[in-house]
Amino acid sequence: MSNMRPSPAMVVACVALVASLAGTGYAAMTLPPKSVGRAQIRNSAVGTLQIRDGAITTGKLRSDTVTGAKIRDGTVEAKDLAKGVLPIPTTTLQAASGDPVAPGVVGAVSATCPQGQHATGGGGGFAGPPTTNDKVVDSLPVGTERPVVRWRISVFNGGTEPRTPVAYVICTAP
User: CA-CA distances (angstroms) from residue 65 to 70, 144, 153?
Assistant: First the structure.
């Protein structure tokens, strides 16, 4: 068996490896808490994968850091918001009756939202019980106002007596 000695290059490489490992361990053991700050961290060195869930709280954010423009659509849902953060819209239902519609004829009537509210939906029919041959011709927002404030219902009277059409509009305050 021959007596093999490591080459001088191998000795230098081993010493360098031991020194580098020891230096990293020494630094990790001797750095005081909170001694690494913004100045010691390269740009883009910390990303979402390095941040624990729940580590960034409201108290750790500067005012106006997160704005509506910086939030992607669909990422915040109602369940994510504290109660009272968003105002509850005021919603009302308005009704209007039209002139009686003769049998076999189409009649129409529109309902209008109160001042300061706009239409979000609507519908209607005839006052009283329906008949088999009644038909809704149309049910839609109407008018030139923006946002829309009126809803029209047009109905065909399939009964045998004149009947009163009724329109409903669902209104909300912005």
Answer: 9, 40, 48
Question: Would 128 be classed as within a structural domain?
Answer: yes
Residue 166 has pLDDT above 80, yes or no: yes
pTM value is 0.55
**Domain annotation covers residue 129:** yes
| Residue 74, domain member (yes or no) | no
pLDDT, residue 27, reads 58
Question: Distance of CA 118 to CAs 133, 170, 173, Å?
Answer: 33, 8, 6
The predicted-structure confidence for 94-125, as pLDDT tens digits, reads as follows 999 999 999 999 999 999 999 999 999 999 99
Q: Give the tokens for residue 10.
A: 């191998």
Total domains, the chain: 1
Query: For the stretch 28-53, what's the b/e string if a residue is b when 16 or more beta carbons lie within 10 angstroms of its beta carbon?
Result: eeeeeeeeeeeeeeeeeeeeeeeeee
- Residue 67 inside a domain? The answer is no
State which residues form the domain around 165.
91-172
pLDDT of residue 22: 61
